[in-house]
Amino acid sequence: MAPAIEAKNLVKNYVTWERKGFIKRTRKIVQALRGVSFTVEKGEVFGLLGPNGAGKTTTVKIITTLLLPDDGEARVLGYDVVSEAEKVREVIGVTLSVEKGFFWKLTGRENLKYFGMLRGLKGSYLNERIEYVLGLVGLKELGAADKLYEEYSLGMKARLALARALLHDPPVLILDEPTIGLDPASARTIRELLVKLARSGDKTVLITTHNMFEAELICDHVAIIDKGKIIAYGTVEELKRKAADRVSLELIVSIPKNMLNGLEEKIVALTGLREVALEAIESGRTRIRIVARPGEEEYVIEKMLEWLYSNNMKVHQVRIKEPSLEDVFIILTKGGSRGG
Ligand SMILES: Nc1ncnc2c1ncn2[C@@H]1O[C@H](COP(=O)(O)OP(=O)(O)OP(=O)(O)O)[C@@H](O)[C@H]1O
Ligand SMILES: [Mg+2]
Fold first, then answer.
1. For domain 247-334, is the CATH number 3.30.70.260?
2. Nearest CA to ligand 1 atom 31
């Protein structure tokens, strides 16, 4: 039996033109995918996880027949995405992270009617499906089914995009960052729905996400993609075992903008640890994560606090945590020297 989705050695290069001065331009090749392979089994929620620019959307566009690969192949339920693109389109429901193509002056329900008819659905079957998916994604409950699209919140737009993807009852859902930018309640509704659809036994769900927490919550298997390559694959538990012998330190700090440049290198030099990641979070704060070996944490925290205080930086929080998927990612992308 064919797996739900199979990608084999996908390669994609984008050609861009870089402006050099007023007229001169030089050709630049961006290697978006450098041989991406993975398999999604039927009935699972699969997460393609990676940071910005890793190649997630490019992979999704190839699998959903929106973009041709330069090399390699991909199949959905056994159908080739290049030579059998029509068949593939019949069996997939898709949402892209930057959702365009809804009509602003139509209501959610009217939009679904239009897209359902484009799909060849009609009559009472179409109406039944529309009612069903509007209920499923919670737009009815929100009283938003008959609101104009232009009045929709981001959460409502995300729900409508999912409703449209489900309209023709496809066995495979391929969703690019389905919860990006959503408030926690909308994100939770969508996550719960995706799990429910997969557990009901008749849907396979592939999502992309840069949110490790989301992957931990809902994915049966995860493939981590970085710089156009899959660098790890497994269940969340299997991946977390890669960090089993580590501790995770987290500091929330206010750092002046002029000190952000080269900060990571600075922390690496200061602590002697390479597994460091920075993330800008709300209200100008920075989250510093350092993956350490048990026994190192006291020394590392001491060093960090000493340095932060002597540079007049405000420290809001210091925590020692169990390793998470995020730490696995840090270890895989930054580690190496200590044989971890
Ligand atoms: N149309 C394009 N032209 C040129 N380069 C592109 C194009 N689309 C993507 N890229 C580049 O290809 C690489 C992979 O991009 P892609 O959008 O697939 O990443 P992503 O994992 O979806 O990132 P994000 O989390 O930001 O959505 C990046 O370096 C990106 O800048
Ligand atoms: Mg993307």
1. yes
2. 53
* Closest ligand 1 atom to Cα of 228: 14
The Cα–Cα gap between 176 and 104 comes to 22
5-241 has CATH 1.10.10.60 classification: no
Ligand 2 centroid, distance to 87 Cα (angstroms): 25
In the reported structure, the alpha carbon of residue 32 is separated from the centroid of ligand 1 by a whole-number distance in angstroms of 6
Domain borders along the chain are 5-241, 247-334
The pLDDT tens digits for 133-175 are: 999 999 999 999 999 999 999 999 999 999 999 999 999 999 9
Distance 110 CA to ligand 1 centre (A): 33
Helix (H) or strand (E) run with residue 124 in it: helix 123-136
> What is the C-alpha to C-alpha distance for residues 185 and 161, in angstroms, rounded to an integer?
17
Amino acid found at 246: R
Q: From its phi and psi, is residue 38 left (phi > 0), alpha (psi between -120 and 50) or beta?
A: beta
d(CA 91, CA 173): 9
Its pTM stands at 0.87
